[in-house]
Design goal:
Length: 321
């Protein structure tokens, strides 16, 4: 086989030498004609190659992300969060000033006292698919049965995301979940060791919410409505009357009182939390309410750690007794 290949190569070399000799021996008239004939035959291919090279030079190659862009985006996000905190603090001071104007300052000295119920934020991890699969397959259960861990200790049949906290940590259905100042959802089912959460974009989610308007006097919160999930990564704010001034880009915060929860489950944070921004706002002719679509500030799929808002008795009151 190698001899045949070698013989073929020798024949090609001899053929090339023969053609070169013939071209050299030909009169210049014939060789010039033959040259032009070969050039014209090869011209379409050469033009095509030149066009391909020109096209490749104009194609923009994907550039790697600039770390400065990521840094600026992170700084912008932090600045927006800081601005929201300052606006809320200003709003609280303004409301306190308005209350004092209405009631007047007492002429006698008063002493502040500790509240009975205080907020307590408990950190929780959102369980990944691999951890949930292991729980469902019983691999962790087999390791924990000797310590009294059974399948009923977990919420394994839920289609919602799971967190690694349950009744053993004082978690109850309806408790709110946050990522920083942004609302993520609320607790649905509770097991001894895990709980399922309803994201704010779920059709099962309902919570009190209101629009925040920026005015010359500062941030002003509007009428309470009901925020419901649409199941498509968005929410809708219901029951906002036509008297409210609604615009795209306005922020949406939690309501003063969550009508979907009993009083024992009401937030004790003392300040509204952030839902997201209005991306669509329409007031149909003759409609009793606005049609408002809200984009959440944070999606549960983007975070791995959340905070569960619990209410506990003030430890200072306990020590005082």
């Amino acid at each position: 086989m190698k001899r045949e290949t070698r013989f073929s190569e020798i024949k090609l070399v001899l053929l090339a030498l023969l053609v070169s000799g013939c071209l050299y021996a030909l009169p210049s008239v014939y060789s010039s004609r033959l040259y032009h004939l070969i050039r014209d035959a090869a011209r379409p291919g050469l033009i095509l190659v030149q066009q391909i090279k020109a096209w490749e030079s104009t194609v923009v190659k994907p550039e790697s992300p600039d770390p400065r862009t990521e840094q600026l985006e992170r700084q912008l996000n932090e600045s927006e969060q800081a601005n929201r905190r300052l606006e809320l603090q200003t709003l609280q001071v303004s409301e306190e000033l308005q209350r004092l104007k209405q009631t007047g300052v007492p002429n006698y000295q008063t002493h502040s006292s500790d509240r009975l119920l205080v907020p307590d934020l408990l950190e929780a991890q959102i369980l990944g698919e691999s951890a949930i699969s292991l729980l469902r397959e019983g691999q962790f259960l087999n390791q924990g049965r000797e310590q009294g861990v059974f399948e009923s200790s977990f919420v394994l049949e839920s289609d919602y995301p799971l967190i690694d906290q349950g009744t053993a940590q004082g978690i109850k259905a309806g408790y709110a979940l946050y990522a920083g100042q942004a609302v993520i959802g609320k607790i649905d089912e509770v097991g001894s060791w895990t709980s399922s959460l309803i994201p704010i974009t779920s059709v099962k989610y309902r919570g009190s919410a209101r629009i925040a308007r920026r005015t010359e006097q500062g941030l002003q919160l509007g009428t309470d409505g009901i925020l419901v999930g649409l199941g498509e990564g968005k929410c809708e704010l219901l029951q906002i009357p036509p008297t409210e001034s609604i615009q795209v880009g306005q922020d949406v915060y939690t309501g003063e009182v969550d009508r979907e929860l009993p009083l024992s489950m009401q937030s004790t944070l003392g300040q509204p939390m952030y839902y997201g921004r209005v991306i669509e706002a329409e007031l149909p002719r003759g409609a009793p309410y606005w049609k408002i679509i809200v984009e959440p500030a944070v999606k549960h799929s983007e975070v791995k750690q959340v905070s569960v808002l619990r209410q506990i008795i003030n430890p200072r009151r306990m020590l005082a007794n």
